[in-house]
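> forwarded from #structure-qc
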């Protein structure tokens, strides 16, 4: 097939708000020997895209930054030395895949941000792509690289989740909904928190046994203890960060696991004794989770294939490519459950 000579892509001349997003057309280079050219079919958005839109990203950003981190698409050309991919392959990509578990590169990924994937065509290093599960659409597959992989890493690593465990999952965003689905499919009991009764109804439909509205029940850790007979939960998917960590440590059982995934509540000051002493006295494992590895992806793909309906991605809304600004504005409202996707 004839390769494209150019691609339309969205970019931020200056980060600061989603209305600053502009569309431009730039040349497409042929892939180098170890690279792959991918035609984008769908992009799922992350909360990090909102942080960039607000101008609050803590690390350096390149000029005319292309947003978006998670893509599903089709290989249309491969470099001379690429053996693992052929044209027509359905793939997922993330600009930091293949790098997260290399120590120096992982630190760089945490501090900086390469151009993203909100573009019609994109070059990837061959090791930055993974195969799409065959039963998923491109829109569904685009939700996997960050949200699903992070949730799987949290539940399957360290002390892996087992049937009969009780898991507290904060919120109903992308990572949280995948964690809920994976936990239910694993035979765990799920308690879900949210500020919205409507969102909690969705969590209940997905299998959560107990739900807590943290606006009407601000001392939600006490309700968790009541529901567990004073024992606490085996595991917590912590997305609030320092805003909720003290309560999470009160709600976790002795020897439990708190998987720290996000800081949606902001980076508030917290007294070190409020963290250190509960971890010591209750022998709690507090583990940070940053996406996942190729091995995690392989394990997750196998798990998803064995639990097709229970793990089918929850997509709140799909936007057209030209409506990318509207998609980011919708995500920023935080009224969604699951994922927001842009179809290209």
């Amino acid at each position: 097939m004839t390769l494209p000579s150019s691609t339309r892509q969205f970019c931020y001349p200056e980060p600061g708000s989603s209305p600053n997003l502009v569309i431009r057309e730039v040349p497409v280079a042929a892939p180098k020997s170890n690279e792959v050219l991918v035609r984008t079919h769908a992009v799922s958005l992350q909360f990090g895209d909102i942080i960039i839109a607000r101008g609050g990203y803590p690390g350096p950003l390149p000029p005319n930054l292309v947003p978006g981190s998670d893509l599903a698409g089709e290989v249309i050309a491969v470099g001379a030395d690429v053996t693992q991919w052929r044209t027509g392959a359905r793939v997922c990509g993330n600009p930091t895949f293949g790098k997260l578990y290399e120590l120096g590169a992982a630190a760089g990924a945490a501090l900086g941000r390469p151009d993203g994937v909100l573009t019609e065509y994109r070059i990837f290093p061959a090791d930055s792509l993974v195969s799409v599960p065959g039963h998923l659409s491109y829109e569904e597959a685009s939700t996997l690289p960050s949200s699903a992989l992070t949730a799987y890493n949290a539940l399957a690593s360290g002390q892996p989740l087992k049937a009969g465990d009780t898991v507290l999952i904060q919120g109903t965003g992308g990572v949280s909904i995948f964690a809920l689905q994976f936990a239910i499919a694993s035979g765990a009991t799920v308690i879900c928190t949210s500020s919205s009764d409507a969102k909690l109804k969705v969590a209940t439909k997905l299998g959560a046994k107990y739900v807590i509205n943290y606006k009407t029940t601000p001392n939600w850790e006490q309700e968790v203890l009541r529901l567990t007979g004073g024992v606490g939960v085996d595991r917590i998917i912590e997305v609030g960060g320092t805003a909720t960590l003290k309560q999470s440590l009160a709600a976790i059982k002795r020897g439990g696991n708190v998987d720290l995934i996000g800081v949606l509540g902001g980076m508030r000051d917290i007294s070190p004794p409020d963290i250190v002493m509960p971890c010591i006295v209750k022998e709690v494992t507090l583990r940070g989770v940053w996406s996942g590895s190729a091995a995690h992806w392989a394990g997750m793909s196998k798990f998803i294939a064995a639990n097709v309906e229970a793990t089918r991605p929850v997509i709140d809304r799909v936007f057209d490519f030209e409506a990318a600004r509207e998609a980011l504005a919708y995500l920023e409202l935080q009224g969604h459950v699951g994922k927001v996707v842009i179809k290209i």
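QC bot note: The chain is about 30% helix and 25% strand. The radius of gyration is 20 Å.
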